[in-house]
Amino acid sequence: MTQHKYLLNENQIPTQWYNIVPDLPAPPPPALHPGTREPAGPEDFAPLFPMELIKQEVSQESYIDIPGEVLDIYKIWRPSPLFRAHRLEKLLDTPAKIFYKYEGVSPAGSHKPNTAVPQAFYNAQEGVRKLTTETGAGQWGSSLAFACAQFDLECEVWQVAASYRAKPHRKTMMEIWGATVHPSPSDLTEYGKSLLAENPDHTGSLGIAISEAVGMAAPHPDVRYALGSVLNHVLMHQTIIGEEALLQMQMAGETPDVLVGCTGGGSNFGGLSFPFLREKMKGNMNPTIRCVEPAACPSLTKGEYRYDFGDSAGMTPLMKMHTLGHSFVPDPIHAGGLRYHGMSPLVSHIYELGLVEAESIAQNECFTGALQFARTEGIVPAPEPTHAIAAAIREAMRAKETGEETVILTALCGHGHLDLASYESFLAGKMVDHSLSESSIAEAMKTVPVM
Amino acid sequence: MTQHKYLLNENQIPTQWYNIVPDLPAPPPPALHPGTREPAGPEDFAPLFPMELIKQEVSQESYIDIPGEVLDIYKIWRPSPLFRAHRLEKLLDTPAKIFYKYEGVSPAGSHKPNTAVPQAFYNAQEGVRKLTTETGAGQWGSSLAFACAQFDLECEVWQVAASYRAKPHRKTMMEIWGATVHPSPSDLTEYGKSLLAENPDHTGSLGIAISEAVGMAAPHPDVRYALGSVLNHVLMHQTIIGEEALLQMQMAGETPDVLVGCTGGGSNFGGLSFPFLREKMKGNMNPTIRCVEPAACPSLTKGEYRYDFGDSAGMTPLMKMHTLGHSFVPDPIHAGGLRYHGMSPLVSHIYELGLVEAESIAQNECFTGALQFARTEGIVPAPEPTHAIAAAIREAMRAKETGEETVILTALCGHGHLDLASYESFLAGKMVDHSLSESSIAEAMKTVPVM
Questions:
Q1: B374, A177: Cβ pair inside 8 Å?
Q2: Candidates A148, A380, A426, partner chain B, best to mutate (most B CBs within 10 A)
Q3: Rounded distance, CA B231 to CA B57, Å?
Q4: Which of A5, A77, A380 sits opposite B176 (nearest CB)?
Q5: Cis peptide before B275 (omega within 30 of 0)
Q6: Per the structure, how many domains does chain B have?
Q7: Could you give the CA distance from residue A38 to residue A59 in angstroms, rounded to a whole number?
Q8: How close B85 gets to chain A, by Cα (Å)?
Q9: Are B148 and B177 a contacting pair, CB within 8 Å?
Q10: How many CB atoms lie within 10 A of CB A41?
Q11: What is the pLDDT of residues B152-174, one digit of tens each?
Q12: Are A154 and A144 in contact (CB under 8 A)?
């Protein structure tokens, strides 16, 4: 009988994360101190992160052991299933084989707990009392809230104001796990106050929320900050997705011809693709690997590869990455998530090396694909992976034209149970496609420091 | 290392449902025709259900094969995991071992698709074009919408007006799967119109929504009605939960001393417990088996065991069951689901036979337990299984007093992602306990027919 899921046992959960950095043909450019513009050292990150994560951020080891305490919590939802999308294939009438790794089985409903748990663990180990963070739609904030509950850490979240108001249930979810949630900009930080003074109805942005969370952590020795994407250690924690998927594709007896993953900060994409990129660099397989981003926030396909700040206020180290400018505020009509102004420096570097491709897709195509997916495969995707689904469908339709049995692999990085308002707008025919114009990109790029 | 999950493979999914009826020491009383009050025959059910389900409803076979087409869709989420709640046990500091079978992994997020899928399948096989149904909070309506999408059936749902207004996202979910959703009472049926004429802001009830859905199906030869709980065939479809749990408890090397399950219409409880009750009747184990219901809707513990209608308008056959009266409307302050006026006739009968026990729990205790559960086990429970969790915690605390290593098994029949408003009210300290008074029960019982 047809097999739908490829399941691993608990004892098959990978016990090491994969660090792609030492395997790359060239090292990624270093982060720079925002004042001196010299390469940033561990001491520059120490007010924000525990030493173990700083070490991981700059590690030259290919593999790093996952602590037993972390594996123990991973087991709440890991290993996650790999599905063959037989029903979607049938609907599309394609010879392609579509596989998807599903990360929505985690308590928070996305891949984010894969890094939230180790981040909370290392902070707890180093005596930290509280973690601060930002969140947009709420996937990351709820993941960190869940993780902090596991290690008795306090958790304080600055949520982009537009989402805070539109999605009250995400706040409830974070509170269920014991976190405190503020809308950003807030009157708790000087930066937030200054923005609210200009505009009391400010809708916020991820960059602003990062500035607030960083600003509340740095001055306190027992408070640290946690970032849900972008940084090397975050992407490395997510490689557990790709390591599991490698084993599961083996079970299915297939190797991918094309791997597509949605990219906002890059952690879902890096998590799925890096282990496959390793095998590709070793010559064990030869998949095309492609980032998929929203047309409304096209950092890779339309941003510039330059040093920029990770936050709006310019408090973080400078990172070389594809950026739309740290003052970029995505159009509120964009419902699909993935709204960060920059792309992970590591993904940006790999893209510059020509090891991966990128494309952008507008949101109506994404939600059209998501509806086809939900009605066949059952699962209602979060807005972010609708981009990956739309890209997989594009590939499957290409295969239909050529008649090739293309093997497509993607990650369904979360379910959409807490993002149904986006679907409501789509079903009502009210979703508007918004492709970022050259002029608005040029405007936002003005804030990028001239080096 | 500690094992958290007991996972089966796809090829271990049970291929038969278990029908407990022939194994009982006495047969359950028959349903009666609402007019003649004579035992209802297949022809009385034919306007509502396809013949295959009517046969299952009165079957004397102990096992019924699950069709391959149904198994194929079950594989989207089945087999479901069985968890050992190590973290909750640690928090409670109890020697008890708590196991829970988790059904929230289904696309609709609850156990309901276990019966929605076969119901849609048999209807499609018999040429039905459209299914109608009722839904309260939306778990059943979304499950049937999902199932209908799999077999290209239309699906029309009457949702209790109070939930329709308070939970717009459930409607969106049903629409994603292609269903049409109306608030109940609606102006689409004569009964609905008459209620709206009395009170344009009528908040509705499950009984009223059933009357509307039944009324829209019965006159049309290509439209049938689907019920999400209460009936024998529904409970039988759900026994796949208990059959899997039996295998998984074997893997864990444990037999339950106590089994607790939340009961609204009885399908989750019957699904988990009937296979264990079979083993108990065979002398293979001896668990205490207990129903847990809300203090606000205590049909088993405070209702009377009498013939009553399944719906408010009195259109269905009469069923002998524990009932609060078919005109019963639960207090809107009750947030915990499980609001049906009657209990499954089969569960009622088994309760009368003394094979299972029952208790009721008020909602603040339920949500207190749910918060302890979410912060340790990670999963945010739906309001319904918070009752099961509270009962499991009661048992675990009893075990702590006696020092016994009691093995407790329960079902976490769904996640609460679409029910976070209940948690919001609890976290704000605004949840009010409401135990149904003797006088209001007496009032509702006045509508029960005198036989």
A1: yes
A2: A380
A3: 7
A4: A380
A5: no
A6: 1
A7: 19
A8: 10
A9: yes
A10: 14
A11: 999 999 999 999 998 889 999 99
A12: no
User: Considering Cα of B191, then B193, then B197, then B203, what sign does the dihedral take?
Assistant: positive
Tell whether A200 is covered by a domain: no
What is the rounded CA–CA span in Å between residue B411 and residue B302? 24
Pick the closest to residue B326 from B339, B341, B307 (CA basis).
Answer: B341
Contact B176 A421 (CB under 8 A): no
A32 in a structural domain: no
Taking contacts as CB-CB distances below 8 angstroms, the residues of chain B near A76 are 4, 83, 377-379
CA angle B422, B269, B88 (to 5 degrees): 60
- Interchain contact, A375 vs B109, CB within 8 Å: no
Looking at the complex, does the CB of residue B408 fall below 8 Å from at least one CB of chain A?
no
CB contact under 8 A, A421 and B379: no
Q: What stretches in chain A show pLDDT beneath 50?
A: none
Nearest CA in chain B to A369: B176
Contacts of B7 in chain A (CB under 8 A): 7, 9-10
Which domain does A306 fall in, by range?
A: 5-11+67-109+233-445
The shortest C-alpha distance from B33 to chain A (Å) reads 38
Q: What residues of A are in contact with residue B12 (Cβ under 8 Å)?
A: none
Q: Is residue B289 part of a domain?
A: yes
Determine the Cα–Cα distance for residues A291 and A387; give it in Å rounded to an integer: 10
Q: A107 and chain B: CB distance < 8 Å anywhere?
A: yes
pLDDT, tens digit, for every residue of A18-31? 999 999 999 999 99
pTM tops 0.90, yes or no: yes
pLDDT level of residue B447 (50, 70, 90 thresholds) = confident
A405 touches chain B (CB under 8 A): no
CA angle A129, A132, A133 (to 5 degrees): 150
- Interfacial B residues in 113-152 facing A (CB < 8 Å): 146, 149-150
- In order of A176, B382, B395, B412, the CA distances from B388 in angstroms are 18, 11, 11, 7
**Largest separation between any pair of C-alpha atoms in chain A:** 64
Minimal Cβ distance to A149: which of B107, B375, B421: B375
Annotate A247-288 with DSSP letters as a single string: HHHHHHT---SEEEEE-SSSHHHHHHHHHHHHHHHTTS---E
Is B35 among the domain residues? no
Distance between CA atoms of residues A315 and A295, nearest Å: 28
What are the structure tokens assigned to B315, written together? 């259109």
| Residues B259 and B273 sit within 8 Å (Cβ to Cβ) | yes
Structure tokens at B299: 């049909």
- The 3-class SS string of A211-254 reads HHHHHHHCCCCCEEECCCCCCHHHHHHHHHHHHHHHHHHHHHCC
C-beta of residue A115 within 8 angstroms of C-beta of residue A237: yes
Q: In this structure, which amino acid lies at residue B225?
A: Y
Chain centre to alpha carbon of residue B91: 29
pLDDT for A224-280, tens place per residue? 999 999 999 999 999 999 999 999 999 999 999 999 999 999 999 999 999 999 999
d(CA B105, CA A106): 10
Q: Residue B82 burial (CB < 10 Å; 0-12/13-18/19+)?
A: buried
Q: In whole angstroms, what is the distance from residue A143 CA to residue A331 CA?
A: 25
Q: How far is B426 from chain A (nearest CA, A)?
A: 10
> Does the CB of A429 have a partner CB in chain B at under 8 Å?
no
Using DSSP's 3-state secondary structure scheme, residue A366 falls into helix
Question: Does the beta-carbon distance from B146 to A4 stay under 8 Å?
Answer: no
CA B259 to chain centre: 16
Nearest chain A residue (CA) to B117: A378
What is the CATH classification number for the domain harbouring A388? 3.40.50.1100
Cα A396 to Cα A398: distance, rounded to the nearest angstrom:
5
The interface pTM score, or ipTM, of the predicted complex is 0.94
Number of helical H runs and strand E runs in chain A: 18, 15
Phi, psi of A96 (to 5 degrees): -70, 150
